[in-house]
Design a protein that fits this description.
164 residues; alpha+beta; six-stranded antiparallel β-sheet
Length: 164
């Protein structure tokens, strides 16, 4: 199994160039960069708004096996469920499918001499990670997601908890 694409350096750094993802694409939930900095931890801001990547095997959810849902750490939108989580061996939480169609936006990422597909939250535009075509059946997809980009909650973690 190819996992090198998961271990890549930061990509598409929208906030790092003083241009937020939200200023280049239109998303339903938008905040100013000052509001994002106030809302997120420094690590979350670096990953979600500047498209950086946490080190492999260091995130809090890479080995989580409990049932529940994974939400965007920036806005609370439900992105993935535990039923689609699998151990890809790459050191980041990996999912074979989305919680629902349309929960993420994909865009080409040709940084660092690689061709990858970046995954953004469709609700707020925050960087989550990348998707690769080396996942298990039936989708064949591997959504390789930064732990700092998601929050995990048990199966009772209802959509009413979405951050406003």
């Amino acid at each position: 199994m190819l996992v090198a694409g998961c271990n890549a350096a930061p990509t598409n750094r929208p906030a790092a160039t003083h241009v937020s993802t939200n200023s280049t694409m239109n998303f339903p939930f938008q905040l100013t960069e000052a509001e994002w900095r106030q809302r997120l931890t420094p690590e979350q801001y670096s990953i979600l708004r500047e498209a950086n990547t946490e080190r492999a095997f260091t995130g809090k959810y890479w080995n989580t096996k409990e049932p529940g849902v994974y939400r965007c750490a920036a806005c609370g939108a439900v992105l993935f469920t535990s039923k689609d989580k699998f151990d890809s061996g790459c050191g980041w939480p990996s999912f074979s499918d989305l919680a629902a169609k349309g929960t993420v936006v994909e865009r080409a990422d040709n940084s660092h001499g690689m061709r990858r597909t970046e995954v953004l939250c469709a609700h707020c535009g925050s960087h989550l990670g990348h998707v690769f075509d080396d996942g298990p059946a039936p989708t064949g997809l591997r959504y390789c997601i930064n732990s700092a980009a998601i929050d995990f909650g048990g199966e009772t973690n209802t959509p009413a908890n979405v951050k406003k």
